[in-house]
Amino acid sequence: MPSVDDIRGMFVPVPTPFTLDGDLDEAMFAEMVNHYIEVGGNAMFLFGSVGQGASMPITMRKRALEVALEAAANRVPVVPNVGTVDPFSGRELGIHAREHGATAVGLVGPYYYSDRSTEELIAHVKMVDDATQLPLFIYNNPAYQGYSIEPAAMARIRDAVPNMFGLKIAKGGINDILRYQTAMGRDFKLFAPQENLFPGMLIGQAGSVSPPLAMAMEVGVAFVRAIDAGDHEEALRLQIALYDFAQSLAKLHKFGRTVQFEGLKYAGFDLKMYPRWPTVPLTTDALSDLHDCIDRVRSSVAVGVR
């Protein structure tokens, strides 16, 4: 059975596909989970920002987890984000995750009410954890939570919730990894953007939960393998390719999540709707730029095959 020890490297944030009427596209979701496992993803993270958890009703999140677990078939850890505005919904999702065999649960900081005190935040996490009783992964996303859980507060949460084993830093660099590592200890698993993997994984970063690489996961897998193999020359080459990829995508940010939709389609997924709200199509030039940047980052792996 998969365990939290297997959660490292490419901790894949799986996008959730929908039908045109906004229902879960179960067949496509199963196909995506299977694809990410087959290309070498180390673990699956569900229902974060790219996974659209906040846009889905609880019943849909439960069903989607069941689909993902069936598709994964115990090959890798599956970790659903059970974060919600209130702890009652979070613990309902957490209990469901435990009962259906999830390896762990993720928890984004409760959002919208961004004026929560640290004490309220600790109580929220503890209430969900007490009901769930699974290893806990915190997803620290200031842009969507409305606040950052800083290292001192994160350490207080871990003291109150010993099940907590890891953290995703949604934004930040090597200095942020070191700040959290100092507060949490080297045994605590830290995940950060893919731009930090080299040298991040040499100083204790466990891996990356990288939404952009959902469009080209084979590149992230090759990158982690190069780092694990001690091939620093290859790791540096792929890190530079990922910098270019990130910078190119940043230029398309103004188009919203239709960029992810078109990028996933270009990766071979026959998506009908993503995200779970109306979007505006990319311009012809923007679509061409997107395809070009995906082609470039994919070719970095083809060039580096040895």
List keywords for this structure.
alpha/beta; TIM Barrel; 8-stranded parallel beta sheet
Major pleated sheet: 8 strands, parallel
Tally of separate domains: 1
Helix content: 40-55%
Give the helices and strands as they follow along the chain: EHEHEHEHEHHEHEHEHHHH
Separation of the first and last Cα atoms: 32 Å
CATH class: Alpha Beta
Number of strands: 8
Q: What strand line-up does the widest sheet have?
A: 3-2-1-8-7-6-5-4
Number of continuous helical runs: 12
Q: What overall form do the CA principal axes indicate?
A: globular
Strand percentage, roughly?
5-15%
**CATH homology superfamily:** Aldolase class I
Low-confidence stretches: none
Short overview:
By secondary structure, the chain is an alpha/beta fold. It contains twelve helices and eight strands. The chain is 48% helix and 11% strand.
Can you walk me through this structure?
The protein has 306 residues and is α/β, with parallel strands linked by helices. The protein has a single domain, classed as Alpha-Beta Barrel (TIM Barrel). Helices cover 48% and strands 11% of the residues. It has an eight-stranded parallel beta sheet with strand order 3-2-1-8-7-6-5-4. Helix 2 links the parallel strand 2 and strand 3. Helix 3 runs parallel beside helix 4, helix 6 packs parallel to helix 7 and helix 10 runs antiparallel to helix 12. The protein is globular. The two termini are 32 Å apart. The mean pLDDT is 95.
List the helices and strands and how they pair.
Layout: E1 9-14, H1 26-38, E2 43-46, H2 58-72, E3 78-80, H3 87-99, E4 105-108, H4 118-132, E5 136-140, H5 142-145, H6 151-160, E6 164-169, H7 174-184, E7 189-191, H8 197-200, E8 205-208, H9 217-228, H10 232-250, H11 258-266, H12 284-304
Parallel strand pairs: 1-2, 1-8, 2-3, 4-5, 5-6, 6-7, 7-8
Helix pairs in contact: 1-2, 2-3, 3-4, 4-6, 6-7, 9-10, 10-12, 11-12
